[in-house]
């Protein structure tokens, strides 16, 4: 196995294990990866966001997002609002009940980061972040090209 293949496999494995570790810690809160990552994404948005925009940010299809939002709405963590311009468009908003849940998610994420990264040298983390950003930029560039190729 060459270095690039080893890197790609390790990156995927680490990503899955990291997500699993947070999922294990959040299981007691009744939150799956899909639910907690959706809440985090919503908390990072400035203002309200449409379901279509949220689906794109999360990388999921519309029907998948609808089921996810139904579950979050049932828990009282989000609400859907109709727009005056187009009643088919729904805006998503966090409810006040979501704040303590978000605080818990962020606390657990901080604890997991500290457990995993706490004793690593800052310069190593900076170098790794540089590489990951470069890879991410290349992936975004290739995704943009393949999306536009068919249009």
From TrEMBL:
Organism for this UniProt entry: Steroidobacter denitrificans
UniProt keyword terms in alphabetical order: DNA-binding, Transcription, Transcription regulation
One Pfam family linked to the record: MarR_2
Segments forming domain HTH marR-type: 4-137
Gene3D superfamilies in the cross-refs: Winged helix-like DNA-binding domain superfamily/Winged helix DNA-binding domain (1.10.10.10)
The name this protein goes by in its record: HTH marR-type domain-containing protein
GO molecular function, one term: DNA binding
A single GO BP: response to stress
């Amino acid at each position: 196995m060459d270095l690039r293949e080893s890197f790609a496999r390790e990156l995927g494995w680490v990503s899955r294990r990291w997500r699993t570790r947070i999922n294990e810690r959040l299981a007691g809160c009744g939150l799956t990866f899909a639910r907690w990552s959706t809440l985090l994404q919503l908390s990072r948005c400035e203002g309200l966001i449409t379901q279509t925009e949220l689906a794109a940010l999360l990388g999921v299809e519309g029907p998948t997002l609808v089921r996810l939002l139904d579950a979050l709405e049932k828990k009282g963590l989000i609400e859907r609002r109709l727009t005056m311009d187009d009643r088919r468009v729904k805006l998503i908003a966090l409810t006040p009940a979501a704040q303590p849940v978000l605080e818990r998610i962020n606390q657990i994420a901080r604890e997991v980061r500290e457990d995993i990264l706490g004793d690593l040298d800052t310069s190593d983390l900076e170098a790794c972040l540089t590489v990951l950003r470069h890879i991410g930029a290349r992936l975004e560039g290739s995704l943009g090209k393949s999306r536009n190729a068919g249009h």
